[in-house]
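Researcher: I'd like a structural prediction for the single chain below. Treat it as a standalone chain; there are no partners to consider.
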Amino acid sequence: MSDVISQTDSFMSTWTDSLTEGQSWDSETQPVSSFPWKAMKSKKKKKKKKKKRFLRSIFASELCDTNSTEWQAEQSPIPGGQVVLDPIIRGIFEIDKKSCDVLLTESRLIWSPIQPEAPTAYSGRPKSIKVFVNPNSHKKEANDVYQEQVAPLFRLANIQSDVTITQYKGHALSILKECQLQEFDGVVCVGGDGFASEVANGLLLRAQMDAGRDADSVFTPVRAALPLGIIPAGSTDTVAYSLHGVRHPKTAALHIIMGHRQPVDICTYRSDCELLRFGFSAMFGFGGRTLALAEKLHWMPPVQSREFALMKSLANLRPEDCELSFLPQYTQDDCRQQKDMGDLLHCGSRQLWQQIQGLFLNISVMAIPCLCSMAPRGLAPITSLDNGSMALIAVRDTSRANFIKHLKGYGDFKNQFRFPFVETFTVQEVILRPRPRSDGADEPKPHPLVSAVSPGTGGLPWNIDGDLVEMSSEIHIRLHPQLITLFGANTEETDDGMSKCSCL
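Model: Treating it as a single chain, here is the predicted structure.
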């Protein structure tokens, strides 16, 4: 510290000498005042002002020669710059009317200008949204959830919302096909998985209409024009749970307010080259029969109807005879290996498809993990929201006790696919063809495809995103990577396997 004081004293003496030599104090050129005391006082004031202005502009640069190579090596910005000696004083000071990060060491004074970052508005935050509320939610009234928990947050964030309370199934779909979507920055739905699938289906169908795509032919769909926000207000909420990691309406609303966006894979469901709908997940067999039975029990409370349908489906457990054709998810290395072996067929050709058949208790095809309270790791933990692949889970015919063990595996963190009668595949496309039972029991009726929106017409039940779909012919499921964007952030798994929201 004594060296610093001595250097400062030598600098002040040098500066005083230079000031004395540089100024001319010729009395002949100085103005004569009739009030000498005022003149002396004004000289003192001028001298003090000049000294302050002079010291403010050169004090730091005189202590360290800015032209020396040693200075240039040490003058790098302090964040990221390496200083060997321990600092004595460090702070933010004004140098030449600029804020600088100043560092004083035992041998050097180092400073670097601070470049403030200009605040920029985040373009992902919506200013105006279209909200659809499903009043037929199994949980608490979806309108109450929106008015009490979500709408106040939107008002605080100055988000203009146009709210529509749907009156019947398919109401949101019909509105999305006709409304002026260019007036909004996003679409929000308040309800369960079935309602979220309906709104997502409407957004994608509207995108195909605007692009001039023929939905009745095989085509490559275009992305949805607007992001979709899902406020969970249903019984399971697997889409919102998989997206946010929790079933909390305020968490979903905060993701919408902050403009967090997550591309998500989605599937198309076709039959006889006709587009049925877009969706995230589907179950055939046990999952479809359980939902078909629960749909007939509307007079019961939701929890009791689900439990009763589950127990009765287990009591009447029976397999379905079908044939599965699927295209595995081939990587670039797999395709390169196929070419090296002399196979000139490109990946995705029919000769690369695989086929299995037999009796199956349940078949699941899922593009998202499908997290829920009954399956904290997800019904399909082998996939993710945007990895460009689907999970095909086929449970072959087995005893009721073994099947119950498989179902219990979803409730804990054990591997629910460890049983020999469970087969899992990572696929891009799936074709499922129901076949008549060899013993003649439950032979499917020969009539053509049944409408995908009206249950109870005699087809085989499918559970597509919580909606009951009945059909008797084959169904073709194809994955479309990141075709829709959802308001939210992908969840991260902790060490104990639980999921958490990446926003809170």
